[in-house]
Amino acid sequence: MEEAIKNFPKQFLFIPKVQNIKRLKKSKKFIVVGMGGSHLAADLIKVANPNFNILIHNNYGLPNIPSKQLKEYLVIFNSYSGNTEEVVSAFKIAIKQNLSSAAISTGGKLLKLARHYQIPYIQLPNIGIQPRSALGFSLRAFLKIMGKAKEFQQTTKLSSTLKPWNFKNKGKLLAKKLRGFVPIIYSSQRNAALAYNWKIKFNETGKIPAFCNVLPELNHNEMTGFDIKATTKKLSRQFYFIFLEDETDYPRIKKRMKILRVLFKKRKLPTEIIKLKSKNVWEKIFNSLILADWTSLFVAKEYGTEPEAVPMVEKFKALMEK
Predict the structure, then answer these.
(1) How far apart are CA 38 and CA 35, in angstroms?
(2) Each residue of 144-189: pLDDT tens digit?
(3) Per the confidence metrics, is the pTM higher than 0.90?
(4) What is the second-level CATH architecture of the domain 163-303?
(5) What is the CATH code for 2-159?
(6) Which residue among 38, 142, 211, 306 is least packed, with the fewest CB closer than 10 Å?
């Protein structure tokens, strides 16, 4: 896992090749069908530019959109393994409905189907890492298929500007603070995908419970669950709050985050601020996630858990096939 973190910037040198490119529909509207780590890169594209028309679908079937409108989209199916049940079944539905489609995968059933039906596809490098660790590969593939040439070129620079080792010690220190606590990650709505990425890295790498939410919504409900009383004190003391503070957030959101942290401190609830700032939006995104990688890795070491594999997920998949 440590090598995957250190070598992560190299992923932005990946030059995706679109097979069956003549059949690739040019579009400004996209539906991304993917589960777990297979839709995370598309989420991050929306963080970088919320104006991009990208609809994420992480479920069976296709989005509940009228057939006429569905045909306006390019539907991109992403399964890192190529065997994700929900994605493969959705691909078959799209073929029956004659929707404009494309696929991204390292192999498996999805690429076999794409080749059979001559659907445009990109084959990702299979270097033995988990989907959550392959965000650079996936991001580049999405940008290529979506025709986002400017953004594709911007991300190439990350191969030299990202410095994973600069965040190792900070991640180690944060992991020590988190020992004995359940992390809750808070962010603005725009950065929801970053908070979610932090959460799943704690879940999959650290093998611990973790949760996330966004402002301002949580100010109207969730925070009241931590208004400590004598009878609820033991419940609230189990959590550690991580605030992803973005200098570009709406001013009222930044004020809400500051006030909430003060209220939590008065209730003796542990908090941590992770400042999201860098030269550009892509560095901001991936510097944050590299810190999350290191933190979750050291969380795993704190508890003696195995950081790479996800045996419970594999066991669940096996049971689903019975």
Answers:
(1) 5
(2) 999 999 999 999 999 999 999 999 999 999 999 999 999 999 999 9
(3) yes
(4) 3-Layer(aba) Sandwich (3.40)
(5) 3.40.50.10490
(6) 306
